[in-house]
């Protein structure tokens, strides 16, 4: 019974003495904090790291707050009142959390509206297909477009079909390889087909096999080609249209879309800070994007990333851990269909970018974290690896070869700023991505808390250590 | 190099001799076929079984035909032209396959029509919820029903709420335990809530967690309670409404449904046979149900079961394996919302039920088969176990304690007929069940071919063996 035999060690007097000694030791170690490269410099951060991890993992605050955000405001597409109401809520809550310099930075954003939409097979069978218009697509006229389909498995097949595409609804039945490879059909498919005289485009959704689940996402029209409507359908229906064509039959589809643009709308990036105690002008940014598509409630993409980053500041504030440099949370607007928030931040802060020590974005879903992606010099990489060793025990210490995020990238490029991403188990990310199933239940409180703990320790140490990251 | 050293064994002359000897042996064994209980009686069936298995597994016919059915006719709800067109197609194809006594047996079926429908949260957030009206539900008036929600996790919670249910839309947020246990909320939930004055019911879908996927299915109103509209919503939205209530807020939902019944419509059970060579009046039935819900294309539930059963007869016919007794395929109509096909078969064949040796239904999806369920006496069970040993190598030899199917059950009960089911890997069945995702891609050709092989061997031996099963 070892606990009993050791009991005398824990007499009140002993505890008080240990506490005093510990505090003195901690103060001493802080006062003499050494820079990376010095032996044992990291020891000074074991105490703060354990407090950050403990505080993050003792509550389900991040998940609860994400549930509140998504339940009460729902989808947050650029231009929607839901997004603007959510922004007001975030500003209010950040102030209540005690964050500093809480403010909104105005950004004008595109205002695309989906409207009512449908796609139905009218021959050989009468069948409604679950569909989602692609973001930025034009609509059809009221009667819709009714045309035979031409199914292709690649741009090469489309180009080989040539004139046969004229007057048709082109169906891209492209198997999902990876988001990076397959998304080109969503981005460029409409204009490529329009060039050959197609009337509209249906896209097999870019994502993992689901439950007849369409995935939306942005397209971009070229300047040269006619604009034609484009929508995502499910893997199941793309394969069905393929089989019908392969049997030598023709399928006819009717597509109706009310999609259109309104005038640009006013939105904002939301900012809150924990001001640095010694070098407040030097900034570590932790970020996510607050806008979402209009079909799910944007919990995975990217409400979770926003709430996790924000919660990091709340945890540090509550622990009274004020680092040497400023830690700033940025909730970017309009990542999904314009990236205006990312550009606006770069422009509004251009004189300050040289003082950005590091920028971190979490936009892969706050699933179980595994580590960080990092784009920086070798000196920074060595430091980040050392810091990550504090996260070994919670399994978040893997450092990948590159890191960053869409919203921070304009600033990162302009200011040559070290950039990081929170790396997570992405295995289900592209199952939910841009679908109605992007809801808070797909994430779990412990995974989110681990993300808060990991980003908390990493950003705190980088913001607090004597030398600047990478220098 | 063993193959080379053995090559002399395969000289043409040797092969011819082996073939003659084999044929003689086979003929002898057939001529002296022994009944179950006799030693080695099964040996006579090793040859036919290997031919059935080989024939089933050398082609993807069953899957291809299921794709054709579902692609060309789509959903097949009772009363729909799609179902009736599919029935005509099946009759035509069965005749072309060379089946005998191919005919339709008229059945009048309920004709429920879903119409346009929607459910949206109007407070605290404006949010469309994916939904499916429950089969048999009444509709709302044109403006719909707008009311506060009362979320309950069980009938006990509903009853405890008592008067608080009056005027509300009751949301059954019941975690899925098993289909058998949880489906009671779908069946009886509307009337239970109406009894307390509720205006409508939303049901957390009875099925596995999906992608914001509602599952439809039939409800049944009691005679006593007012009829109120009822619809299924997703797990995600039921949980959201629960969280809102748990926070002490109220949610308001607007439900619109055009659902209504038309006059009963004419449909039919489809029948085809391989007439017995000695006892054609004795019948082994293999069956599935041909109707489906109106939201998917009814591949898993239960196009696959129908096509598998039908393909068994085609395989036997093509192999010229005509058993002693008749094997009959029955494609039942109206399993989903009325069971009229099953009752009609019982009534139309009542004088013949005593001659039904065994009835088998496949209605758990034609996923990877593992064996059979069997409800019969011990003598029958021993025989079925012996027959199943021929399916050991393809992994389909497990015999479960009970077996049958909804459509065959009226006949089975009336005629005290041994009944069987094809048992399969059901792990994904309730992911797709009654959803738009019930499509042919969820099944694979090899699993279906294995099902055909297994049902083929089982039904052939039972139909051919000298003694009647269980006697």
Overview of this structure, please?
Two copies of one chain form a homodimer. Chain A has 14 helices and 16 strands. With 471 residues, chain A is an alpha/beta fold. The first copy, chain A, folds into two domains: 279 residues, Aminopeptidase; 144 residues, Glucose Oxidase, domain 1 (3-Layer(bba) Sandwich). In chain A, the strands form two sheets. The first copy, chain A, has an eight-stranded mixed beta sheet with strand order 1-10-12-11-13-16-14-15, sandwiched between helices. Chain A has an eight-stranded mixed beta sheet with strand order 3-2-9-5-6-7-8-4, sandwiched between helices. In chain A, helix 3 runs antiparallel to helix 14, helix 9 crosses helix 14 and helix 10 packs parallel to helix 12. The longest helix of chain A has 20 residues. Chain A is elongated, with a radius of gyration of 25 Å. The termini of chain A are far apart. The N terminus of chain A is likely disordered. The interface between A and B is large, with 36 and 36 residues.
